[in-house]
Specification:
- The chain is of the alpha/beta class.
- The protein has two domains: 275 residues, TIM Barrel; 58 residues.
- The protein is 43% helix and 12% strand.
- The protein contains 15 helices and eight strands.
- Helix 8 packs across helix 9.
- The longest helix is centred in the C-terminal third of the chain and has 18 residues.
- The chain is globular, with a radius of gyration of 23 Å.
- 46% of the residues are buried.
- The mean pLDDT is 95.
Length: 409
Amino acid sequence: MAKIYIIDVTNRDGVQTSRICLSKLEKTMINIYLDQLGVFQSEFGFPFTKHEINYLNANLALAKKGGIKKMRLSGWLRAVPQDVNAAFDNCPRLQHVNLSISTSDIMIKHKFQGKYGRADILKNVKRAVKAAKTRGAKSIGVNAEDASRSNMDYLVKFARTAHEAGADRIRYCDTLGKDSPFSIYDRVSQIAQAVPIAIEIHCHNDLGMAVGSSVAGAKAAVDNGRDAYINTCINGIGERAGNADLVSVILAIRYGAGLNAGTLDKRIKLRTAYRLCKYASYALGIPIPINQPGLGANAFAHESGIHADGALKNRKNYELYDFHDLGRGEPEVVETGRRITVGEYSGIKGFRNVYERMAIKFDNDAQAAKILELVRYANIHNQKPLVQEELRFIAEHPDIAKQIFSMEP
């Protein structure tokens, strides 16, 4: 049976969102959380962008030492050989890439402005895929930007060219959120029937249909015997109106009528979702909406008499899935007495008190002083108080943390 896998793009497409950003430490923590959730791959950044290089190499080193256990880390590049070579020069451990180029006539005309035509785009794809394979890429996705507005015959030709060049996947990008579940099912089916290649679905939410279109596109691939890879962002962030929400996509596949929960990657552990999404909300500074599926404060709240009575008798009367499925239900403790925190001006006594409360001890004062210095840098780096998971990460991986905090202009 063909399967559906999750490729999360929070650390690439998500951070391109206007007015938000993540520190390199926060991006690293998100990769760790995504790995715990069972996500297949994280598109973790741009390996040709200077301020990303230390963070990218640090995360690749973290994966090598087991801090990220199973999830792949992939870089996003333009589908041109110079980007490919720069990426592998900058990040020698890089193994997974997505190569992107526009395919719609409107973008060919108005974005490239005569630099490329349809034939040139196909040539670039061949060259870029060949370059990536030469540099040792273990998996290659080729992105058709603006696929939903691309000529269908040309899109099939593009997919065939990518497949014949050696690409593992074709990414169908609904870049402007134009598709509906009906149109994307039809268009992805045509590609899947014509070309024996796995298909990624990348949808934006400009019409409020990113999750529905993502799931419909994946179903089209699976129905035609092709593996599907849905691109998601945590809490639905992303450019303009956002991308397909990570948790909503998983819930839709697991519980949606007419869908087959058995097609979803077995590695997904939804019980870690609440912790991941709460952390991302804090890191991004964006509250989770009260009505967010599965995660919002009202997702399992009942007030009207009939609903409250029904839910108390049996939650299945008015709840499609259990809150425990998402890792909810544990009390959230708020300290109301004395509290010692650690920040950029902390001293060794307060610092050690914070870590002792986390049951983390240091062998000697020199080791503690080393971690304290990193924690000070981390507070400056994040520009907000560190959470326990970040403090724990710094203590467990000090050399990785040091590399993440180091950026050169």
